[in-house]
Structure prediction request, 646 residues.
Amino acid sequence: MATGEHVLLVVPPVLYPGIPTLGPSILAPACRRIGVSARVHYANLSFASRFGFEVCARLAASRTLVGEAIFLGAAFPERANDVDRILDLLQQDVEADAKLRQLVRLASPDEEHVARCVAEIPAFIEQTAARVVSASPKIVGFSSMVQQTMASIALAREVKRLDPKIVTVLGGANAAEPIGSALLEMTGVFDFVFSGESDREFPEFCKTFVEAGVLPEQRVIRGRGAPRMDDVPAPDYDDYFAELEPLRATDSIAANAPHFLIFESSRGCWWGDKKNCTFCGYNFPGTGYRAKSADRVVDELETLIDRYDVVRFYASDNIMAKDFPRSVLDTLADRGTPCALSYEVKSPIRAADLDSFVLAGIFEIQPGVESFSTNILKSMDKGVSGLDNARVLRDAASRGLRVVWNILTAIPGETCDDYERMLGLLPLLHHLPPPTRWGPIRISRYSPYHNQPEKYGIKGLRAWQAYYELYGEYADRIALHFFGEYTTEFMQAPDLVARLDQAVTDWTNAWKRPEGAPVLSIRRLQGGWIEVADTREVSKATVQMLPPHVARVLDSVQQPVSLRRTLDEDREILDGLVALGYVALHEHRYLALATEPQIGEALWAQRRRNLGRGADDPSIEIPLDDVSVGPSRRKLAFSHDETLRL
Prediction:
């Protein structure tokens, strides 16, 4: 490892090794900006190289805390004999939960790989810490989020043993208060922790120590957040690429990495500043929503594309800025920037904004579709109706946009009637992509459910049992996820829970059919006629022609329209469209359900032209699973391709 840096920022396992990490990649250039040399060391890449990139990826994706448990013996040597027992307990939790069991089968490494990790982790920690110390840094910072705490403790302990003069620092989501102070008390291996955004505080801390040898009296340093996002350095991922390069020939994941890069255009959540979604713990208190200027976002993206020859980016933003479609996306579209972006957005989204998404290169959105029940959404403070969410899914599908979304249950305030109504709607939506997952919420630290449990009728809040096994008396201060004592009508109706499970399973299976996913789409013809293609299980006719007067009524409910606001003369036609399943009547509101692939065809043709290619250039592949259009099942050039040719 190169020597001479004042500061070494360590990315511990078991973070996914196929992409670099944003936080350290911003802090390192922030230090260099004020004269403090700094670099990032990806210990998670070293771990992946030793144990296998797939093993590391599966550990990182695990829904249990197995990625923490395997490092327990190295973090606390006196507890090495507890590791196997705790791993057995985690497995028992999995076996007791059918849904978790399914997720673990998909994501977790097998027992043989876990056993090998446990056996060899002490040697890995010794070797990694020796490499860190050999670089002669004055300060070693550990970046910790998700399942990186135990590895951070283990590495910090060994670094301190090898060279007690090195100042050890912990930062990241797993150091935010009250977690940070609890880890200081519990471990004794960190000299300082940084709680919250420390874009200014950490570089100044390092500069003061490097130049004057002075350290602050307080050991928990609270970040105040960057007041101007344009002052935050662009991420520098050079260290990741340098450490990845010699590993490319050894592993297929490494050979194709990075699968994307992380960038940020804003921090905080403008919706959460007004009304925090009740289950969400991402909106860290006290910082407020801040966004980079449009020019800065465009320049930063284009710089990252040119520097790293990567076009796929995932935004770290909790939510897209409200003016983003008109300020940033229109500029990206006009300049023909060759990028493919994934963003979290706020439902409902205007159709015009979805058009801007396509033209600018956004291929995937996560709009916070958590339910189709307006009562449940209101209980979660989502600020949206059930049919608003269905409309977003429909319009995104029309434009060839991938949507990541979930159905959340066990929401305080939900009723059985909410789910009965949803069960009537779901079969009509089989032509739209099914949820990524469904199931009960988890109570997350910093969420309203955690901060104000009594407001939602939640009692007996306590950390997941796995946290007690790992952290003992400190569990409630360190845990990210909690159990609470409460119930709802739905939670007490096992038959209804089973019906919802079956409904989602049927929807998911419909998208796995050999003949392709179901279709409900329209194609506009001359003279105002509309051709409808319908291959859903509820279909009454595979192909249907709608005359102009019926087409007009169908168009009148492209947005959710309340029953009482429809014209009397249209009611009979609407009832007929409801009977055909082309229009949903849900919660006393109408909504047209069919996608319109012609919209996507035109937008992607324009996207090709913006990129300086012909409208029919086959070298541009739209990053989405195959989308079938029209009665002949003709396929658009929409295909999900990890290489994403542009």
Notes: The two ends are 37 Å apart (CA to CA). Residues 468 and 475 are 5 Å apart (CA to CA). The chain has 27 helices and 26 strands.
